[in-house]
Specification:
3 domains; 17 strands; Fumarate Reductase Iron-sulfur Protein, Chain B, domain 2; 16 helices; FAD/NAD(P)-binding domain; 455 residues; five-stranded parallel β-sheet; alpha/beta
């Protein structure tokens, strides 16, 4: 349960009814639909969709396999580039990546090839009788991976394939990271993250130790001494603050905290419900939070952003999901004051209206208030500095609040690599984190094998 929302009521509908509001956002393709959709692909040479895919999946090749009714071949092609291809097919913003780059995405065509749904079809219908990848000869090398999110799992799987033994150190009770705790429930249903994890671990050679938190009962210095290489997939565990008074009042919390509880809840009817709520932010997390509160039964959901719709981090597709769920998108408004009732609990928020002046965001001088039982912050995540508190970890070079890495995912400390949201590279996307883990594993393997040859 969420202590800061303990004063709120529960949803009026029963658990079974609420569960029906969190079914698949996009229904899967059936075999006939997949075959027809695959036939639309032109199998381009030097396909722009591949260049737009952060994990470098050979998209025309796997789609051709589907068209030829070789579903397992299609799935293996996907998984060889992206071992978490099943979850990425569901959560990836394909509308701004591969499908945006599709040559059929033009005024003369009705739509781009539905690459994401075809990828999901291949993974869901492959039905492997055994793990499709085998380990190379054992090297005797041991790799430490900190964080069992997409980056860490990807790195671990690829290292295991190369014949190294891997130990994953994970703070939470379940592995999966963002896929398990941070994605909207209607995007990853039926415990998909855990099923995908089980499949990944079938490669062998990977051990997961739970309850292990860097900066608490784990130090980078010890890991460097005990393992041949270390990969940090720490994510961004802390939420940014508004910098306003009463930010810790009952009824105001990070959206990620609520989403985590919602994803782990067995009975959604036992969650606290804010009948009137405000979500602050402009990214996919803000949309996820607002939509899920609406689906739980909130009467009034306002998503408020300090700039315009065109500046929102959430894609047009995500914005359409919010509108379809009666979420009100309010722009050009910046939080100014948290309003409390006589019990010290959130009752609303005062906003300052904003505008651009020569490229700078300024207040117009006008204000307005919104009533709310709860306010959810989705204004971005930041690095939890306590994770890098031991002497060696403090030597890591940073770029802003992120860990600085090069194109091979190497940090400033030899033998220590990093990937995913905690690094200074690229967008904070699941598919990008998977690619980071894969690249780091390749760099780790190359270095370790060079050391073996030199010896």
């Amino acid at each position: 349960m969420i202590p800061t929302l303990s004063h709120l009521p529960h949803p009026p509908e029963d658990g079974a009814t609420l569960a029906g509001h969190f079914t698949d956002l996009a229904p899967p393709l059936n075999a006939r639909q997949a075959h027809l959709e695959a036939s639309r692909c032109l199998y381009c040479y030097d396909a722009p969709c591949v260049n737009a895919c952060p994990s470098e999946i050979d998209i025309p090749s796997f789609i051709r396999n589907i068209h030829q009714e070789n579903v397992q071949g299609a799935a293996q092609k996907i998984l060889s580039a992206n071992i978490l291809g099943g979850s990425c097919a569901r959560v990836c913003p394909t509308e701004i990546l591969c499908q945006k780059a599709c040559v059929r995405n033009n005024a003369e065509e009705c739509a781009p090839v539905l690459i994401g749904l075809l990828q999901r079809y291949a993974i869901d219908n492959a039905h492997f009788t055994e793990h499709p990848f085998t380990r190379a000869a054992l090297t005797g090398k041991r790799i430490a991976v900190v964080g069992a999110g997409p980056a860490g799992l990807s790195c671990a799987h690829r290292c295991a394939m190369h014949g190294h033994d891997v130990v994953i150190f994970e703070a939470r009770a379940k592995a999966g990271g963002l896929n398990e705790y941070g994605i909207a429930k209607y995007k990853l249903v039926d415990d998909f993250a855990q099923h995908e994890l089980g499949f990944l671990l079938e490669i062998g050679g990977i051990e997961i130790r739970h309850g292990q938190r860097l900066g608490d009962n784990l130090s980078l210095g010890e890991l460097q001494q005990q393992f041949d290489a270390v990969f940090l997939g720490l994510g961004l565990a802390a939420s940014k603050r508004l910098g306003l008074a009463h930010e810790d009042a009952p009824g105001l919390l990070a959206a990620t905290d609520y989403i985590r509880e919602l994803r782990q809840a067995d009975d959604l009817s036992q969650l606290p419900l804010a009948e009137h709520c405000i979500v602050l932010g402009a990214g996919n997390t803000a949309i996820d939070m607002a939509v899920q509160m609406a689906r739980l039964g909130a009467h009034d959901v306002n998503l408020v952003y300090r700039r315009g719709l065109e500046d929102m981090g959430a894609t047009g597709h995500e914005q359409d999901i919010a509108k379809a769920n009666q979420v009100r998108l309010m722009t050009w408004a910046q939080p100014e004051e948290v309003l409390l009732d006589d019990k010290g609990q959130v009752r609303g928020m005062r906003f300052a209206r904003t505008r651009l002046d020569k490229g700078r965001l300024i207040s117009t001088g006008d204000t307005f208030e919104l009533v709310a039982d709860a306010i959810f912050k989705a204004i971005g995540q930041t690095f939890d500095d306590s994770a890098l508190s031991d002497p060696l970890a403090r030597e890591l070079k940073r770029q802003g609040d992120r860990i600085l890495v090069d194109e091979q995912m190497r940090t400033s400390i030899p033998g220590v690599y990093a990937g995913g949201d905690c690094t200074s590279l690229d967008q904070d996307l699941t598919v990008q984190a998977v690619q980071h883990g894969k690249l780091a594993a390749q760099a780790i393997h190359a270095r370790l094998m060079l050391t073996v040859e030199a010896a």
